[in-house]
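fwd from M.: "can u put these together and see what the complex looks like"

so here's what she sent:
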Amino acid sequence: MEDQKLADPSQLSKAKLFWTLFSTTFTLSAFTFGGGYVIVPLMREAFVEKLRWVDENEMIDLIAIAQSAPGPIAVNTSIHVGYKIARIPGALFTLLGSVLPPLITLTIISYIYYAIRDNKIVQTLFFGMSVGVAVVILDAVIMMAKTVFKQKDFLSPIIMVVAFVTIYFFKVNVVLIIFGSAIVGAIAHLVFHKGGKR
Amino acid sequence: MMVLLQLLLSFVQIGLYSFGGGYAALPLIQYQVVDLHKWLTVQEFADVITISQMTPGPIAINAASFVGRKVAGLPGSIVATFGNVLPSLIIVLILAALFARYRSLKVMDGILYGLRPAVVGLIASAGLAILFLALLGDQNFPTTLETLSLFAVILFAFGFTITKFKKINPIFIIIGSGVVTVLASLAGMKI
């Protein structure tokens, strides 16, 4: 599976490392509309494909762990990515990067909201951007789904489809889906890999 | 001073109890901000949700910044926002450290084996919701095509085709789509 070489962030100076962590999460957070899962595929693209600091499977693990904590998933994921790359200082910089854009935006908007709310151009701009967001997410989902099918076992695609259907159509609580799939995975692993590799 | 402390406590609780992120936090925010402390009216609360759909960032943070500013100015906005993410920071760091430490346990392999495809499924669901919201104005599975925006369909198809041929920074795709839409609208096209 290890086909692409990872870059080593510890080669960088501390200042450069922290600046990259901060500026990457800041930019993503500033331009990501729609919250929730929108930013996560974009973080994957930045940290896995562009910077190559985290590999594809590790990234999915980071997201999965971040999901099991309370709070916004975008914030949790950025904390975990920062921690993974540069421990607690790294986590603080990615947290700051992901929180500052909404903090600044909403503080400003709280002053001018009633003036721009009915502006036609503002509405049109946001509408067009939401289409762009849809393009980006669907592209990322297709790439991530390919990784799932690459596992070459029958259970992974089933878990993926069941998770999708239960949340999209039945609006089941995300936490239940997360814990459920963790338990299914643990049991399946114990059954199929008795006395496994490790 | 008192109001800053109240903001902090309220938003720490919202951050702590909102498992599942995003809209899971809505009822908690409403309870603290509208019912308990009466910092916002129901109408203002609905406005904050609307703003959140048009601006970057998770809804809980958006609400924290908006409410904090309204109640106690800039310090209020900062206190409420960082109060909101404080539980996340602590709990994710603990989980991350545990994960790094127990990564080699066999049961952890199994857990991650189950979680990986589930996470992809969850993101796919959000992606589909956003797609339908953009194209039809409703995030649920479409039962009618009456509200379909032809312009959005063409823009989506065009953008999606481009990403298949050329790797473009996602942010340019997002901003580009916004700009193209505004230009088309100014040129008199039906959006």
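replying to her w this: Chain A has a mean pLDDT of 86.
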